[in-house]
Please model this.
Amino acid sequence: MTARFKLLLQLALRNLVASRMNIAIGLLILSGTMFFVVFGALLQSISKSMARSVVGSISGHIQVYNSTSKDKVALYGDLTGGAPDLTPMTNFPQVKAALLGLPQIAAVVPMGTDNAVITTGNIVDVTLEKLRDLVRAKTQTSLREDLNALPSSELDKRIGIQVAHVRQIIKVLSTTALRSKEILSDDAIDKDAAAALARVSEDAFWNGFQAHPNEALEYLENRIAPQVTDAQLLYIGYLGTDLDAFRRVFDRMEIVDGTAVPTGHRGFLIPKFLYEDQLKLKQARRLDLIRDALADGKRITTDPDLRRWVKENREQTSDILLQLDAVETERVASGLRALLHSEEADLGALLDAFFNTNDDNFRARYQYFYDKMAPVLTLYRVRIGDILTIKSFSKSGSAQTVNVKVYGTFAFKGIEKSPLAGAMSMMDLMSFRDLYGYMTTDKKEELARIKEATGAKQVTRANAESELFGADNTGATATVDSRTITADQELAGHNRLQRIDDLLNRTYTEEEIESGVALSAAIILRDPTRIQSTIGQIDKLSMDQGLHVAAITWQTAAGTLGQLIVFLQGIVLFIALIIFLVALVIINNAMMMAAIQRTQVFGTLRAIGAQKRTVLTMVLLETVVLASFFGILGVAAGAGIVALIHHFGIPAPNEMAYFFFSGPKLLPELTVGNVVAALGLTLLVAIFSTIVPAFIATRVAPVRAMQADE
Amino acid sequence: MSPIVKLENVVKEYRLGDTVVPALRGVSLEVNKGDFVSIAGPSGSGKTTLLNLLGCVDTATSGLVEVAGQDTAKLKERKLTDLRLRTIGFIFQSFNLVSVLTVFQNVELPLLLLNRDSTAKRKQLVLSLLEQVGLDTHAKHRPNELSGGQRQRVAIARALVTDPSIVLADEPTANLDSVTGNSILALMRGLNESRGTTFIFSTHDLKVMSHASAVIRLADGQITGREAPAVAINHAIAELQSAVSQVTP
Model:
């Protein structure tokens, strides 16, 4: 048996080089295998990089959530774009303890994602609020202690500056209104708005400000502020998590601006990408984008995007104009006049000229903007240290609001430029629970305080009637509380602010953070290859201990993004399938011809006593040898190409690709799996395409041997 | 002594579309062990068909074909193949050596299919046969490095290596010059005598016929006589002369 096999093998090896057809088939196999090695390595690297991006920036290797939830965890949102319907895990501490009992689990981080709205007030609101604070400090007491301490003369000076700024804003608005009058028909102009604008433009209005500042402020807030449309409603996705644990575990996260949220504090962190892209002054952002594009070798003269940005910067100068008060306006204008050698008085026209950048003057203008103009401008709508009001709709549909301090911005190393990685803000778990509508320790305390103050007590359903209407049930008697409501004490913002202040400065222990609910938890494994087996163990653990948790892979947890990966893999598989089919047909054809050419050999073998299966083995073995030989050559060639690509790296073509490449460059690597898969597939295709020719070979009648050679 | 091959009233017909072409029309024949028989006849007389039936590579339309005591019509494909392997050796007109194997490997091939002997035994068998056909020095050559005569010697060695009862040779000298053809026949005859192997070979060459112990003459699918070579040659010459006189005015 072995000797016969050896001979068949030898036959196969010799036939390998004996026929040109075999060489042709071999070259086909070689290029096919090479293609699969390279393609496979690229695909795997993308898949791996993406895994690194997803796993390292948010999901961990496995996500666990309450198994009674309607949906699965979808960290990047589900296909409908909404947040998935998850039932909270109320037993998180128990779940965590149980999970950490598995030796392969390195860490468990509680989390939850949701969407919220952030409102950044418009520039008039902001200016008017400053003015109101100053006025209040002068007339009664301001909420701001620092202002109350100022002498009256200083307050007057500051009020003067703010009034000048408001009047400057009105001037800008009037100019804009004048321009729209030229374009719009009379019907399209809001007459009330125009009248209001006309009134506040007059000196008479401002002369009255001294005497009745509150009335004037109210008029400005109600009639003028709505005319400025730069207020922004920003929809953000956020991740509520144990920020300390998150930073410990997801070590790719780094703070870019500001600081991390201090241990145990409530706080908010904004992704650097979002911060730059959405919250930065538009002109500054576009200048940054143009600078980056120029660094990448693009030119304003040739690139339509860059030209559009230049155009937008020239046209949308009101953001800057509104920010500046009269003094600053003149300072910026005179600077620009000197820079541009212009006599122009109007800052709007000067800014138009300044932002009219081209490939030659861009660098100088960019430098000038950041050196001279940026210091007097508010570059970001939200500044580090601001207290942000975040509004979200809880599951029951009621709007919840929390105030959190912005401590800084963050990014994930390697994927700083990715919009996907930079989409999700971060919030402490306590604020998240407040926002999501869960009972937190603070809320419990507040409820207890209210109960105590009002004398409310828990009433059960069974004795509700007797408790509410008296045991004898003879009728209800209402006792009137004669306590007076002191509006100042109850409603003044002072107490409210005090409470916010308390919350913001309060430190929570790790126990407090973890003892509440969590929507899901990220699990970090010591060995990332053991995801599937660990999921099995978690399921078992959940069953055994009644934890009611379900575990899913990071890929599933990534939601839409995970499906995108599956979709991409599907496309690749489809392409592979087509290539396979084509290769199958070609190899099959070639093998068929080879079989037909060799009918006399098969006939002779059959005549001298070879059984059909011997002939079958011989032909298949030949294919296996052929495919292995050229397949290995193909793997070697493919490995060479992969090494070459690895050496140079494939640069990410756009910002989106940063996430898929998990950095600026894709560095594909060959794995044993790649090689085995490529060789295995090659063999499979080769054997598949030889089955029919091999059977044809067995069908050659032995009498064929007797016929003279043609 | 029972015959090693026995044919009784064998008919073989080929179908070419709608027409039935008779190749053998009621052939009866017996060959005994150790015979050195030639089947003679002009082209199209049915020589190859007869050999195919004897070699179990084809089956009769009707009649009995018995090889080594077995009725071939009753054997399944696998058994028939096995019968060929163990009982019959083939020598082909165009040698049919496997071009990618060496002389040694070509001769060893049937032994490997037989799967009976140890490596050492196989080596000994192959080399001894190669010595008998005078090619022991060419064991490592490839067929394309040999002359026609040498190739046919390799084929003879291959046919004999399993020590079959019958060796069938279809026009073994057709592709050789007359000197080489003679030496091949002499070799076959020598092996027939030394080993007692039955040889049945077809030919239309009178000189080749002369080596045979008996000549079975075939014409139009029927046996016209079984004679000593000299008689058969005379018959053949007479037939040839009458054919010549018919075309000469």
Observations:
- Strands of chain B lie at 5-16, 19-31, 36-40, 62-67, 70-71, 88-91, 166-170, 198-203, 214-219, 222-227.
- Chain B has a mean pLDDT of 90.
- The radius of gyration of chain B is 19 Å.
